[in-house]
Amino acid sequence: MKKRLTYKNIEAFVFRLWEREVSEDPISEKENELLRQWKTLAEKDLDIVHLKESRERILSGLEHFFPQKDIVSIQQVKSFKIHLYKIAAVIILLLSLGGIFTYTMFIKPDIYLSKSENRTVHLEDGSVVTLLPGAELTVAKSFPASTRVVDLKGDAIFSVAKSKTHPFIVRADGFSTKVLGTVFKISQSGKRKAVDLYEGKVAVSSPGVPVSFLKPNQKWTNFGIAHTTAVISLKPAKNSPNKVPAILSLSFNDVPLKEVVAVLESSYNTKVLYPKEAEDKKITADFTGGTVAENIESLAFILGLEVQKKENTYILKK
Fold this sequence. Notes:
- The protein is an alpha+beta fold.
- 35% of the residues lie in helices and 32% in strands.
- A hairpin with a 2-residue loop joins strand 9 (183-189) and strand 10.
- The termini are far apart.
């Protein structure tokens, strides 16, 4: 049975324990047990009102252990923290607003949209861009820099201010066009991409195929097929306003045979037959300056097949 201590001895002991608790000195489990006894003996007969009054009296008795200047200091610290938080909130707000202003004025690119009709955009370097319906042009705040770069979605006609030292690059969907000063048109319809050159010179690059260099009245296209590129001449026909297309170069890099044949048939207005089992065979070839017969002969050589012609049809067979 536990030894019952007198109230007076327990009160003195508990007060010493409180001193140690305030000073953050460790209290043993046995001392914690005595504190629990104090709680049971001292508080069991007090109702809520008496318990509150007892705690207030105990706290009042401890006030002389804490100089008034310390209490004021704590209050000052709390007030200072609240004031500091308010200042920090204002600073964060100002930084946020300043950041938004800075981003909008100096970083965020300018975006030009053309909805239902053509829109003309005059760039700072003197270049003029005509956006066709549905097109979107993005121009960085740094434009014009040492290299003049813009991003294009959709179709547009560019009249680029000439500069021998500052190339103008249009980044489109999956290809880019580089010029020094010229007039050209970029067309994008689904996977089919094209560049028509009216004046000057341009270089068109696309992943997986050689860079194409265009002269006036020439067109670059990928026929809507990845890793495919062609340069087509569009010279006016004699005694006619219409232009007659002629393939100047045609390149394929790891393209299925069925897609290569589709390009050849549409480009040369002919028909090409081949073994069904070869339709998915990947073709890498560069047809430059050849006639339709020469290009199909080259394709047959790559496949290890023979060529037979009947009227306007080429038959590739073993």
